[in-house]
């Protein structure tokens, strides 16, 4: 398994390339500038086959559509987002594989109503999860803001609390 982080300091945005054992990889929460992902995948000899969105982003423009058009990769996005673009809708406890990696989906509303966490197990190494892509739900020492939707801050704060106290 290969993991590479991309970070845009000015907007504090992280995205990731996660590669399987041989040829396939996913890009998690791609930014608008997709060239860095195309170059990184090529340098590693990987094909971008999956594009994973943790939530519908309000703080930056996602590059998921451009990346899908350029690579033919499938976009995986929250079913709760009711996206109008071509995608694989994901809900709680859905699973999918990329080579030796198993991804399990957790619905974790709170930052936005449609947040997902992708829990990854590298099955070539065992059955214990090795990574979680939390989007803006969870940070080191902090959680995502629940106040981005007018009039819904209290409701989303409650959902965020439930996401942390009732999920595993």
Entry keywords:
single chain, 168 residues, alpha/beta, Metallo-beta-lactamase, Chain A, six-stranded mixed beta sheet, 3 helices, 35% strand, globular
Walk me through this protein's architecture:
The chain has helices at 35-43, 64-71, 153-165, and strands at 2-8, 13-19, 24-28, 47-52, 74-78, 88-90, 95-98, 101-107, 116-122, 131-133, 138-139, 142-143. It is α/β, with parallel strands linked by helices and 168 residues long. The strands form three sheets. Strands 1-2-3-4-5-6 form a six-stranded mixed beta sheet, covered by helices on one side. Strand 11 and strand 12 form a beta hairpin. It is globular, with a radius of gyration of 15 Å.
Strand order of the largest sheet: 1-2-3-4-5-6
Instruction: Please outline the major beta sheet.
Output: 6 strands, mixed
Instruction: Please estimate the helix content.
Output: 10-25%
Strand/helix succession: EEEHEHEEEEEEEEH
Structural domains: how many = 1
Mean of pLDDT: 85
Number of helices: 3
Assigned CATH class: Alpha Beta
- SS-based structural class? alpha/beta
Beginning-to-end CA distance, first to last residue: 23 Å
Question: The CATH topology is what?
Answer: Metallo-beta-lactamase, Chain A
CATH homologous superfamily descriptor: Ribonuclease Z/Hydroxyacylglutathione hydrolase-like
Taking pLDDT < 50 over at least 5 consecutive residues as the criterion, the unreliable ranges are none
Radius of gyration: 15 Å
CATH architecture heading: 4-Layer Sandwich
Strand-residue proportion: 25-35%
**How would you sum up the global shape?**
globular
Number of strands: 12
